[in-house]
């Protein structure tokens, strides 16, 4: 007999032979509109526990072959119980979603039980690592489950939407695929999209091991003094820098959403570190620029960073901030929502009192954008480094001179701009005021970061 797809997904995620099913004999209760001859094994969801690289995890997988994977009363109660078990074991919960919505035959019973799932997600938000993966359909209220998870993934063929696209006003004219994985990854930011189910399961495994495996990255065999390449130093590409600084790899989170703000995890001499960084361009594997990104802080970027910083705070994961923010993106969305988005980011940085924080000023950073990116004044950063060619100040020298010395004429303004650059924007000036602890050569970044986090 062929293995059902829901169970197959679990077995591909977990270590071979480690899965133990819980609640296999649970079935739906009779309701007014129950179809008596319709079998519902496990009530459409397989739940249980197993291991990823020897680390315990709890997992549920919705079975679209049983009543189209719809969520009914017992289906939801099985998931809610799994959260209680995971909390006692201090283990993650991983949900593999493939659901046709709520079971109409069970009405309020199904809805109330679904509410219990959301309540468990909220109750254990600070104690249980929650990961969701949309492997098929996820519609309506079911979208709240990945939204309330710490990390959410989708395959490129999956669909997720609150309202069916054809019901959205003017969508026929707009021709937007609101249900598509591409939209969810790049526009809504609800989930990170990967090419296939295998890629999604692999990334979940990598994430779980990196976040909960105490042995991960502890080999200590890598060169602590390894230099950053000249090309990466010249490009000032945050993604390349973090990859070269890492012992093994930089695991980026939600790369397609607000790509001007980089978030992810790496280890530095075995120390797990969360990283937030600014990026003004995308580069390919050869280091060739493929796209320019938003110039300055954006609403989506700040909200993305705020959520990531908050997660690191809750888990007491050390935080690295790589700053190269020269202002705010000059678009309508900035005027509409950026102050609120920056406020979220500031609160996240300020509330992180239990995890060590190291800042690196990689590029030119000016004004309030510099402060918002975790400056010591709001984050109480333990150590602040700056590359020796970086600039830190109120604004670019030319703009400042045009404001301060406009009455003195063009030549005088140019001269004053040069003076302002040296006295106000030079990184040594920031160091003289105590805003920067050490000015370093870019090539030696990895060594300095390792030394800092090792001492904190």
UniProtKB/TrEMBL annotation:
Keywords for the protein's UniProt record, in alphabetical order: Transferase
Pfam families: Carboxyl_trans
Any one GO molecular function term: transferase activity
Positions of the CoA carboxyltransferase C-terminal domain: 199-456
A Gene Ontology term for the protein's cellular component: acetyl-CoA carboxylase complex
Annotated ranges, domain CoA carboxyltransferase N-terminal: 1-154
Name this polypeptide is given: Carboxyl transferase domain protein
Source taxonomy: Bacteria, Bacillati, Bacillota, Clostridia, Eubacteriales
